[in-house]
Specification:
- The complex is a heterodimer of chains A (409) and B (167).
- With 409 residues, chain A is mainly beta.
- Chain A contains two helices and 28 strands.
- With 167 residues, chain B is mainly beta.
- In chain B, strand 7 and strand 8 form a beta hairpin.
- The chains are: A mainly beta (409), B mainly beta (167).
- At the A-B interface, helix 1, strand 1, strand 2, strand 4 and strand 5 of A face helix 1, strand 1, strand 2, strand 3 and strand 4 of B.
- Strand 2 of chain A pairs antiparallel with strand 4 of chain B, so a sheet runs across the interface.
């Protein structure tokens, strides 16, 4: 009795030891034992009685004392089907895109971390005001456009998107374990998209039955929570969901639900142009200190075009400024009429009809030049009561000011 | 000149007789009843956050799960049994979790060659990737063996145990 008690205590100590050993447990190989594999184990005891060696006795589940090979029965259980899929975003960075650019690529890695090949249904879910952190935090504010059929592509193994080599797919067919594979989400960026716009897209991989055919994915899987069995028939092993909760902030992915997801985002980098216009009466025909807007008065218009200095702002080229005054010119009967004067720029020199000032981002350099009102080789003109100024290029943070003067008729 | 073939033959005959005698004497029963149990180790997290382990039937087992093997040896004979040696292979699809093998009252030996040779931990070597022998570690072990230090009296029972991880 005392000995039995002693061994019970050993048993308790062992159980306590399991907790500690969990930390030191060797990590299982990712591939894992294939679903349906039976694991058998049988111990053997040898001993002597009166110094005579006795025949070995094999263990059995219920206890065996009959010596000889084959007299015992091994412990036996079947390895069940572990469903574990992982989707991750590649690069930990957003994809920067320009407005009006097509086939922009988000790169994901999908890996079957279960213990058998499965089909995985892939879906790309548009963000809806959600936020992800890829270096810094990005908040979704538009949806990149799907112009392809599915917009999800399976890499051909070269780790680069190429629509002539890769395959557009909606599911991974009989996707084997331990083969991390790139999957691309491909969208277009609308032409009107402003600088700093963010479109978050979540790629979700849902494990389904391995259909055994590439024609269609298998049926949905449900975790076995009902009757447990020690030994499962091959192909009908019990299903255990072992996936983590994905990093996606959009979608339905949760811990141990047979699916996993990750998010990536398009970040639109563009010029960030703004335009302002002001009018100042600088002189009236009577030389008032505070000149009034009366016929014969000179008005200076100032148009300023600015390219923003925020993150990611790009150089804008080919900017055209147009200011059509013809409606004012032909305004209500008897109303004020405007017309350019060619001799109202202080110490006006020939050809100095329109003043142009270009300001560098750091404010260090201001370049002022003038162009004539005529439709000629310079960048500006005032023809048919309309100002046009073109060929302007502005780096981030730069601004351009165009001034011209008119006389109220 | 010794005829080894005949010696072997007569030895086999003697063995067969002993086996037959054993059957006749004790209706096939040896002096030890050996019982093996495989149980899954489940970590239960209590509401207060503390963890405890439970052993349950290995009904749902997937890679990464741990299985506790318990082998109970009971003396069912009328005399003391001595030099009791229990040997258990670690299933091919599993890895021994180091430190989980019981060692109370027994010397624990391991094999790294499928049960051909046994030695204490630290005495065994295996060939490393570069062809040079290196000390064996728990994942190299193919078998585990307990050599009881004391005899087992009639009706006495003793258990050994180890935990292995399903690869």
């Amino acid at each position: 009795m005392q000995r039995n008690l002693q061994f019970k205590q050993v048993g308790v100590a062992l159980l306590a030891g399991f907790l500690l050993s969990l930390i030191a447990a060797p990590s299982a190989l990712a591939a894992g034992t294939l679903a349906g594999q039976p694991i058998l184990n049988s111990a053997t005891v040898t001993y002597t009685v009166d110094t005579v060696l006795q025949d070995g006795i094999e263990s059995s589940v219920g206890g065996n004392s009959t010596p000889g090979a084959g007299q015992g029965t091994p412990t036996r259980f079947t390895v069940d089907r572990k469903i574990d899929v992982q989707v991750s975003e590649v690069g930990t960075a957003v994809t920067t895109s320009r407005p009006n650019s097509n086939d922009q690529v988000l790169t994901f890695l999908v890996e079957n971390q279960g213990n058998d090949a499965q089909d995985f249904v892939l879906t790309a879910v548009d963000g809806s005001g959600n936020t992800i952190t890829l270096g810094t935090a990005f908040t979704d504010d538009f949806d990149a456009t799907l112009s392809q059929t599915i917009g999800i592509w399976l890499d051909d193994g070269d780790n680069a998107f190429d629509d002539t080599l890769d395959t557009e797919i909606s599911y991974l067919d009989a996707f084997p374990v331990d083969t991390p594979t790139r999957v691309y989400v491909v969208r277009d960026i609308p032409a009107t998209q402003a600088n700093g716009s963010v479109s978050i897209i979540t790629l979700n991989a849902q494990a389904v039955e391995n259909s055994g055919t590439s024609a269609a994915p298998g049926v949905a899987l449900t975790e076995d929570t009902s009757t447990n069995v020690l030994e499962d028939a091959v192909g009908s092993e019990q299903i255990v969901f072992a996936d983590d909760d994905g990093t996606a902030t959009q979608g339905t992915d949760a811990l141990r639900d047979g699916q996993h997801s990750a998010s990536d985002a398009y970040f639109v980098e563009s010029a960030q142009l703004s335009i302002g216009k002001s009018a100042t009466v600088i002189r009236d025909p009577f030389g008032n200190a505070n000149p009034k807007s009366i016929p014969g008065s000179i008005v200076e218009y100032e148009i300023t075009v600015t390219n923003g200095s925020g993150a990611g702002v790009q150089t804008a080229t080919g900017i055209t400024i147009a200011d059509d005054l013809s409606s004012e010119m032909s305004g209500a009967a008897g109303g004020p009429r405007l017309a350019i004067t060619l001799a109202e720029y202080g110490t006006q020199l020939a050809g100095e009809d329109i003043e142009v000032e270009t300001n560098e981002a750091d404010g260090s350099t201001v370049v002022t030049s003038t162009v004539t009102a005529a439709a000629d080789s310079d960048d500006g003109e005032f023809v048919s009561d309309a100002l046009n100024f073109d060929n302007v290029s502005l780096d981030a943070g730069e601004f351009l000011t165009v001034r011209f003067r008119v006389e109220i008729q | 000149m010794i005829d080894f073939k005949n010696v072997l033959k007569s030895w086999m005959l003697v063995s067969a007789c002993v086996l037959a005698a054993g059957v006749a004497i004790a209706e096939g029963e040896g002096s030890i009843e050996l019982k093996a149990t495989a149980q899954k180790v489940v970590v239960v997290i209590e509401e207060d956050g503390t963890e405890r382990t439970e052993l349950v039937a290995p009904e749902i087992v997937v890679p990464g799960d741990m299985i506790a093997y318990t082998i109970d040896a009971k003396n069912v004979g009328a005399k003391d049994v001595e030099r009791v040696v229990i040997t258990d292979p670690i299933p091919e699809q599993m890895l021994l979790v180091p430190g989980t093998e019981s060692s109370e009252g027994a010397t624990v030996l391991y094999s790294v060659d499928g049960g051909e040779n046994f030695g204490r931990e630290g005495e065994l070597t295996v060939l490393g990737a570069n062809g040079v022998p290196r000390p064996a570690i728990s994942t190299d072990f193919t078998h585990i063996r307990w050599v009881f230090e004391t005899p087992l009296a009639p009706t006495a029972e003793r258990s050994v145990r180890f935990v292995a991880l399903v690869e």
